[in-house]
Write a structure and sequence with these properties.
With 205 residues, the protein is mainly alpha-helical. It has ten helices and no strands.
């Protein structure tokens, strides 16, 4: 998948890459969709582990958490690709039992991180941080998709002068984190966030 994110490999391609038969693959997984969601869970666990470490660091700061999140997402195209495919494609083709486990693990990861983060941000509740993490995740998928237009679109606009095709993923995700963080604090304090003052929403370096 790291070589090409144009389509999801078939079970036969997965088996060939792993050096096993397709029968072995289906001994452990009922479908290729289960393979992808399992991989997505493993990559997500790596992200949660990184953020837990950033939150627990003696030199904790929201900026370090932001930079860790952005860096991990920027280096994990497969996670972003699977995150986009999961709701519409992957989750629709697995059993109820598998979907339940997959969603429960994701929820537990988010709530566990929010609980640890709330220890560092006593003014914020676990629920507020939980919602922040979830919205940030969805923002990362949107920004990643925006930064990687399909080949046919690139061919239609070879000069890349269309504003819809422009944007650096890491920079855009950094800004999204800052806005969501500022908005969460503004909502907590009962204040409105002024959209025209984008500079004031950005976290320090």
């Amino acid at each position: 998948m790291e070589r090409s994110l144009q389509k999801l490999p078939s079970a036969s391609e997965i088996a060939k890459e792993a050096g096993v038969t397709k029968g072995v693959i289906y001994h452990y997984f009922r479908s290729r969709e289960e393979i992808y969601l399992t991989l997505m869970s493993q990559l997500s666990a790596g992200l949660f582990e990184l953020l837990h470490a950033a939150v627990a660091d003696s030199n904790y700061s929201p900026t370090k958490c932001r930079d860790g999140f952005v860096g991990y997402c920027a280096k994990n195209d497969v996670l972003m690709f699977l995150g986009l495919a999961a709701p519409a494609v992957l989750e629709a083709k697995v059993s109820v039992e598998f979907a339940k486990v997959f969603k429960r693990e994701a929820a537990e990861g988010i709530v566990g991180l929010a609980d640890a983060w709330a220890q560092r941000e006593p003014r914020l509740s676990v629920a507020e941080l939980r919602d922040f993490i979830l919205r940030l995740y969805y923002a990362s998928l949107t920004e990643w998709q925006h930064s990687r237009p399909p080949q046919v679109v690139l061919q239609a606009f070879p000069e890349l002068d269309n504003w819809m095709l422009q944007g650096n993923f890491s920079d855009a995700l950094t800004t999204s984190f800052d806005w969501l963080w500022a908005g969460m604090h503004a909502n907590h304090d009962g204040r409105s966030l002024n959209p025209s003052g984008s500079g004031s929403a950005r976290l320090g370096g």
